């Protein structure tokens, strides 16, 4: 895009961040009453709600698995979430792909063998989209799963990174994402640093991969600290309300 | 129809094999299957075989209005068809697989901007070329994505669009007989390489086949071009990986991609040379019709370096009472030929020990008299004759098939005058019979 400077000479990005700086993360657990677990996460201008139901008896046409739980993910974007009004919230190829990716991510992270013949539903709704939909969705779903008390190997934290002018940039926003540059999305289990999901778009030279991947993993760990803080805060509140009774 | 589930025995066998770096089809862990790229009569039609996985891609174009966001760029649309023809289970639950393949192809080909879409603009904001790549999966034997990617890229590189001249507001599209069609400008060739992981990421193989795909924990798709740029990267499945494993895959993918790019360019060159020289081209040329495809077994190397001695020992022991060891050993020497050190062929060499009646012989002579009336039986006749030369049956069939096709292409010559082939036949027939008796006598 001509006339737009994604990285200024002074080393600042288009929204005033430094290359290694995340957007502000705000999160909250237990935002709904009905689901077993729910969470709301804001990363900059990207806002995501997640709700988790289950484990419960498989419903509809979902086939029971004898050795593990079925995880059903649904990713949808509100019609008002993007600059142009979206025609339908889900069912297009991109959101179907994202649903599949979410499902794969959480199948790897949840201890699926504990609940055979049952089902867990994860519903994710993007309220406002400003890049990093997948990452914010994963972070929100992790919090919702923790709120629902479903055993996981670890938190799953996701973060994106890009590469511009020999500088890796972390947690990219919509403008940086759509400018045609590289986009690398990673989700990891922060304690063991194992990679659960990895995906990249647009060209990136093999030699730069290491730098960008490192940056994204560092971003994931930072996200983890934010999420962990929220969970601890939430737990102290809950326990305080119990002891007050 | 739902696909047959894999039995537990089979699953465990494959997993155990992968653990000791062996694969059920005899490949090394990091080997690709055989690739065959053929082009159709029309420009932009490509058929790729990766082992037994077959994919056809067809590129077409039409003039349309550009997208509002990109007014001076052509558009590209990729469509993947998974019909039940490829595998019966595609009838029902192909939705997820279809989305996955389509999106990965889009990301690999479209998002990496390998086709210069700006050159497809005819009149900015009004008329652009709309490319459409239709990928049809014809047979599913695992790793559809790599095969589809090769087919799509090769088809795009092969495609020619009609030439256009713009004069003021007027657009003229020239048909092919008026002006030569124009090739697309392909800036680079992104090619997918798929790695399958087993045993929670410990074991890694390249280009999984259908069975391996069913038991794998997950896979990693790396799409790269020969300039070592990563165009798409994706890990899917329920496994946890370390960072080093990713770099190992990308390093390996580069080597494969360079080989594949060369292969595509070579086949493109061959096709254009054939077209220029007025030789035969298109599928009719490359598809071997006179072959029984279902029973065709590819020759594979079997490691017999440690077996040879044992076999000789066993045969010696078994025949020691006969007192004809020397004769047998002599026979062994003449019959068994070891082609290379450490390789062997089962059923190779030796006389024909099949029972052959007088009927069959008369049958064969009958065929000899009218050789071109039935090409199949002619093949059989020659097949038996071929045994004499001490080559394996499998190899023989393939070689003679090619001869056969050669014969068929000039049927007039061969039907008018009996060729040398047929005269050989009688000699060939006589000898195996003699040898057969001899071998019977021995047992």
Automatic annotation (TrEMBL), chain A:
Asked if Cytoplasm is a keyword of the record, the answer is: yes
GO MF, one term, reads: RNA binding
Described function: Non-catalytic component of the RNA exosome complex which has 3'->5' exoribonuclease activity and participates in a multitude of cellular RNA processing and degradation events.
The record's subunit annotation is: Component of the RNA exosome complex.
Name the keywords, alphabetized.
Cytoplasm, Exosome
Annotated GO biological processes are: nuclear mRNA surveillance; poly(A)-dependent snoRNA 3'-end processing; rRNA catabolic process; U4 snRNA 3'-end processing
Q: Which family does it belong to?
A: Belongs to the RNase PH family.
Domain of life, per the record? Eukaryota
Q: What Pfam families does the annotation carry? A: RNase_PH, RNase_PH_C
Grouped into one coarse class, the protein's main location is cytoplasm
Compartments in which it is found: Cytoplasm; Nucleus, Nucleolus
This chain's protein is named Putative exosome complex component RRP41
User: What's a GO cellular component annotated to this UniProt protein?
Assistant: nucleolus
From TrEMBL, chain B:
Q: What is the lineage of its organism?
A: Eukaryota, Metazoa, Spiralia, Lophotrochozoa, Annelida
Locations listed in the record:
Cytoplasm; Nucleus, Nucleolus
Can you name this protein? Exosome complex component RRP45
Which portions of the sequence form the region Disordered?
Answer: 406-443
Q: Looking at the UniProt record for this protein, which Gene Ontology cellular component terms does it annotate, in alphabetical order?
A: cytoplasmic exosome (RNase complex); nuclear exosome (RNase complex); nucleolus
Give a GO biological-process term: exonucleolytic trimming to generate mature 3'-end of 5.8S rRNA from tricistronic rRNA transcript (SSU-rRNA, 5.8S rRNA, LSU-rRNA)
Q: Name the family the entry cites.
A: Belongs to the RNase PH family.
Q: Which residue intervals are annotated with compositional bias (Basic residues) in the record?
A: 432-443
Q: Name one GO molecular function term.
A: mRNA 3'-UTR AU-rich region binding
Highest taxon of the lineage = Eukaryota
> Which PANTHER family does this UniProt record tie to the protein?
EXOSOME COMPLEX COMPONENT RRP45 (PTHR11097:SF14), EXOSOME COMPLEX EXONUCLEASE RIBOSOMAL RNA PROCESSING PROTEIN (PTHR11097)
What Pfam families does the entry give?
RNase_PH, RNase_PH_C
Q: Which organism is it from?
A: Owenia fusiformis (Polychaete worm)
Q: Which UniProt keywords apply?
A: Cytoplasm, Exosome, Nucleus, RNA-binding, rRNA processing
The record's listing under InterPro entries reads: ExoRNase_PH_dom1, ExoRNase_PH_dom2, ExoRNase_PH_dom2_sf, Exosome_comp_Rrp42_subfam, PNPase/RNase_PH_dom_sf, Ribosomal_Su5_D2-typ_SF, Rrp45
């Amino acid at each position: 895009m001509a006339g737009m400077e994604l990285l200024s000479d002074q080393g600042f990005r288009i929204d005033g961040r430094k290359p290694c700086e995340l957007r502000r993360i705000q999160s909250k657990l237990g935002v709904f009453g009905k689901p077993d677990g729910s969470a709301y996460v804001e990363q900059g201008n990207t806002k995501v709600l997640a709700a988790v139901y289950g484990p419960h008896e498989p419903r509809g046409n979902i086939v029971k698995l004898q050795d593990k739980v079925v995880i059903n993910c649904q990713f949808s974007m509100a019609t008002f979430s993007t600059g142009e009004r979206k025609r339908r919230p889900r069912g297009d190829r991109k959101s179907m792909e994202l649903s599949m990716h979410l499902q794969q991510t959480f199948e790897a992270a949840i201890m699926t063998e504990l609940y055979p013949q049952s089902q867990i539903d994860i519903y994710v709704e993007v309220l406002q989209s400003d890049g990093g939909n997948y990452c914010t969705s994963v972070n929100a779903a992790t919090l919702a799963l923790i709120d629902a008390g479903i055993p996981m190997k670890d938190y799953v934290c996701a973060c994106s990174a890009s590469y511009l002018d020999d500088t890796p940039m972390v947690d990219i926003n919509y403008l940086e994402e759509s400018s045609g540059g590289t986009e690398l999305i990673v989700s990891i289990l922060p304690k063991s640093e194992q990679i659960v999901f990895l995906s990249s778009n647009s060209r990136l030279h093999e030699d730069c991969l290491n730098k960008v991947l490192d940056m994204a993993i560092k971003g994931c760990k930072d996200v983890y600290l934010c999420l962990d803080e929220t969970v601890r805060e939430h737990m102290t509140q809950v326990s305080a309300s119990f002891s007050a009774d | 129809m739902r696909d047959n589930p894999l039995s537990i025995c089979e699953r465990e066998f494959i997993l155990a094999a992968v653990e000791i770096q062996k694969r059920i089809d005899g490949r090394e862990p990091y080997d690709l299957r055989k690739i065959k790229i053929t082009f159709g009569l029309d420009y932009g039609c490509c058929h790729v075989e990766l082992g037994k996985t077959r994919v056809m891609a067809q590129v077409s174009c039409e003039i349309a209005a550009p997208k509002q966001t990109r007014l001076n760029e052509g558009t590209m649309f990729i469509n993947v068809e998974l019909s039940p023809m490829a595998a019966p289970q595609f009838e029902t639950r192909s939705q997820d697989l279809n989305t996955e393949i389509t999106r990965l192809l889009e990301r690999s080909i479209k998002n990496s901007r390998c086709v210069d879409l700006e050159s497809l603009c005819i009149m900015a904001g009004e008329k652009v070329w709309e490319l459409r790549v239709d990928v049809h999966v014809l047979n599913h034997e695992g790793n559809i994505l790599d095969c589809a990617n090769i087919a799509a890229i090769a088809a795009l590189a092969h495609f020619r669009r009609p030439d256009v001249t713009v004069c003021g507001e007027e657009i003229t599209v020239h048909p092919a007989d008026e002006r030569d069609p124009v090739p697309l400008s392909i800036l680079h060739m992104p090619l997918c390489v798929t790695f399958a992981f087993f045993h929670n990421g410990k074991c890694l193989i390249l280009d999984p086949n259908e069975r391996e795909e069913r038991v794998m924990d997950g896979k990693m798709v790396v799409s790269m071009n020969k300039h070592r740029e990563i165009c798409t990267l994706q890990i899917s499945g329920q496994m946890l990986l370390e960072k080093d494993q990713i770099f190992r895959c990308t390093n390996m993918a580069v080597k494969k991609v360079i080989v594949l790019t060369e292969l595509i360019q070579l086949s493109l060159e061959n096709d254009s040379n054939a077209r220029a020289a007025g030789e035969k081209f298109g599928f009719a040329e490359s598809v071997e019709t006179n072959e029984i495809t279902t029973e065709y077994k590819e020759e594979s190397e079997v490691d017999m370096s440690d077996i040879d001695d044992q076999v000789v020992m066993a045969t010696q022991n078994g025949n020691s009472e006969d007192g004809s060891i020397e004769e047998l050993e002599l026979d062994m020497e003449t019959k068994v030929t070891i082609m290379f050190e450490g390789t062997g062929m089962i059923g190779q060499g030796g006389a024909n020990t099949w029972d052959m009646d007088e009927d069959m012989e008369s049958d064969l002579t009958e065929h000899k008299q009218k050789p071109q009336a039935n090409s199949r039986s002619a093949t059989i006749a020659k097949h038996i004759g071929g045994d004499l030369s001490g080559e394996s049956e499998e190899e023989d069939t393939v070689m003679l098939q090619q001869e056969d096709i050669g014969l068929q292409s000039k049927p007039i010559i061969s039907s008018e005058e009996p060729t040398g082939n047929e005269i050989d036949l009688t000699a060939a027939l006589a000898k195996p019979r003699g040898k057969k008796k001899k071998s019977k006598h021995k047992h």
